[in-house]
User: What shape does this take?
Amino acid sequence: MAIAVASADPIVGPLRNVRDHIPADLWDKQIGLLMRDYPYDSVMAARVLGQGYAYLLTAMAHRAEHLGLGPSALVDIGVHTIILDTVAYAELCRTHNDGHFLHHVPAVEFKHDGTVLRTARLVAADGWDVDLPLWADAANCSPCHPGNDSH
Assistant: This one.
């Protein structure tokens, strides 16, 4: 069950829904990929994919801010499903990142610096619903490339 970190605000409006930004056929395809590659049912696959999109769209919205964002390990599974579908990912970058490609530059060592929970807060502040249980492994992940505009 999704837990909203940010509530609907009368000035800002209700929480944003990633499904409003992703074509239905692409969403269904990527849900199928998650279910094929992980022991997920359609509900869990939708949770992971939705958080992956919320993270990437937040990272794109904050391009050039050098925030060193990082998802949790579970959210990162959704992110990887999205970025490995390179044609669709390039279109996402074109549409939501002014044509700039948001690169994936993984680091070898995990950091335990609070990045993941800071990232979840920023995702919520940007109006996305945050499924907190999927961000719970915060101690085991960190920005892939700190201080850079990449994932």
About this structure: Residues 18-140 form one domain.
